[in-house]
Amino acid sequence: MCNEYKIIEEFFYRNREQVKNPIIRSFLADAQNLYLVQHAILHPNDCNLKMVDETFQAHYQRVQKIKYISNLIYFFSLDFDKKKRRLQNRFLLVADSGLMDDGISYEEREEGLLEKIENEQLFKGLQKLTDKQLQILEMIYVKDYSIKVIAETLKTTPQNISNLHRKALKKLHHIIRKEEI
Q1: In the prediction, which pLDDT does 88 show?
Q2: What's the rounded Cα separation, in Å, for the pair 151 and 132?
Q3: How far apart are alpha carbons 105 and 98 in whole angstroms?
Q4: Which residues in the chain belong to E strands, given as ranges?
Q5: Which of 18, 137, 147, 171 stands the most exposed, by the fewest C-beta atoms within 10 Å?
């Protein structure tokens, strides 16, 4: 009996890197699977090895299905939220536009990027950006425009918009980091 434990312990020590794999760990966490593996280690015949192999394949397929469904739920929920927000912004109530009695349309009254910022450091950082950088950030994050639409609006290339966007974010990151110190 003591000799059997030593053989099993030796096997797991030799294969310690493989045992660290999360899928193998979850497989061995089940007492029945661990028993099958230990039995196959002590009595390595084709039947025992085949039994462990089939059980592991079933476990692996189950893990893959769970991961797939989990990812499906996650990305579906992100898409759902994005569509819901887009529809809310697209189909405003007619009464909303009637409340504007000073002759300014809803689009002209829409808050800009600076009006929506509550974080003081971020607000100060945004004020230090160029007008074009601020305009691009506003079109991306407030108005939810694509890079292509922004490029057409500003009569430039999408690559230029992308570069200006990236530089604005880097500059903003640098400004905020500098103020934290």
Answers
A1: 76
A2: 12
A3: 9
A4: none
A5: 18
21 vs 26, 62, 63, 154, CA distance in Å? Answer: 9, 16, 13, 51
Q: Express each pLDDT in 87-133 by its tens digit.
A: 777 655 555 444 444 444 444 445 677 777 777 788 888 888 888 99
Cα–Cα distances (Å) from 49 to 14, 83, 88, in that order, read: 18, 50, 58
Q: How many Cβ atoms are within 10 Å of 151's Cβ, its own excluded?
A: 18
- How far, in Å, are 47, 68, 127, 133, 145 from residue 142 at the CA level? 64, 33, 16, 13, 8
Residue for token pair 């990812």: 71
Output b/e per residue, 68-106; b: 16+ Cβ within 10 A: eeeeeeeeeeeeeeeeeeeeeeeeeeeeeeeeeeeeeee
CB half-sphere exposure, 28, CA atoms < 13 A: 13
Handedness of CA 136, 137, 142, 147 (dihedral sign): positive
Q: Give the C-alpha separation, 80 to 112, whole Å.
A: 25
Cα–Cα–Cα angle for 1, 15, 32, rounded to 5 degrees: 55
What residue has token string 């660290």? Answer: 20
Give the distance from CA 173 to its chain's centroid. 20
Q: Report the mean per-residue pLDDT for the chain.
A: 83
CB atoms within 10 A of CB 165: 18
